Amino acid sequence: MAISSNQRVLEVILRMLKGETVTFDTWQHHYEDGKSKRTFQRDMRDITAALTETDFKYDLVRKQLRPQLLTETTQYSLVSEMTANRLTDAIAIGQIVIASRALSRTELTKLLTTLVQGLLPIDRDQFKQAIQMAQQSYLPLANHPVILERMAQILTAIAEHQRLTFDYQTGEIGDPVKKHVAQPETLFFDNAYFYVAMCREHQTKYLLYRLDRIVDITAVHAGDCHRKMNHYSLQDYRKQTYLLAMGDLTTFRFKCRINPQTALDRFPESKMIRQTGDNEVLIEARAYEDGAMLWLLGQGANIEVVSPTSFVQKFRANLVATLEQY
């Protein structure tokens, strides 16, 4: 049944609002084979004019496919102001997730698929091309369990103020799996792992658990509903260290002979005190001793810890113990 041009334009707009792309071929097939390209182009102009006149927050976007060939096709789609930069955002998120190494290959594929589904159809191929090399070279952490399902359980427990009984595998070689009872409050990602800040019953001190080391959740109990969500200060944690939260929290100084910004980025809110020589500066930072030491040792002779004395002695003892192994 023939329809008016106004009805046809309205239908095309509604189809594009649902995420469809329109070409002359698909338009002609849908609205009778006899329609001319001139009529199609007039419809596209009418849509553009209507969007402008109504100040509708969408733009009609043209994208040429195979422009170098005689069979060149132009796709039309509606893009809102909110989705205009979505492709760039999705590529950035995808690259960060791939670089994290935190997920199994199956989970990575699932998450990237979720990102793709949120894109306009005309952008999906470009997204796949942009992350293809990174995805193909993806190297997940060794022996990493599936964690998205476990994450969903933890997030539910946080939202519903539940206390969990769970089996936990510590990082020490040979240590048995131990049972813990605690109420999760915050979940966050840091240095290749997801962590859960939990509080044990009748205690105020928080303990950090690695999500991938929670072997099994064996029971769920009603927790303390009076605790405010996010009571744990993740901001303080970020300020104190981007490293492992190991050892005592301390303020220390070290001479730095690498690019100072590299060290300043590693220790949030650290500061450069003064230049102490050619290509050498003195930096003051605050972090957990053992976690900081792992990074400092990795810089070799480019780092020299100078204070406090207790940290210098601990640093020296670690170097001596390492040397004695060879």
TrEMBL record:
InterPro entries: CBASS_pafABC_assoc_protein, WYL_dom. Residues 151-218 form the WYL domain. It holds the Pfam family WYL. This is Transcriptional regulator. It comes from Latilactobacillus fuchuensis DSM 14340 = JCM 11249.
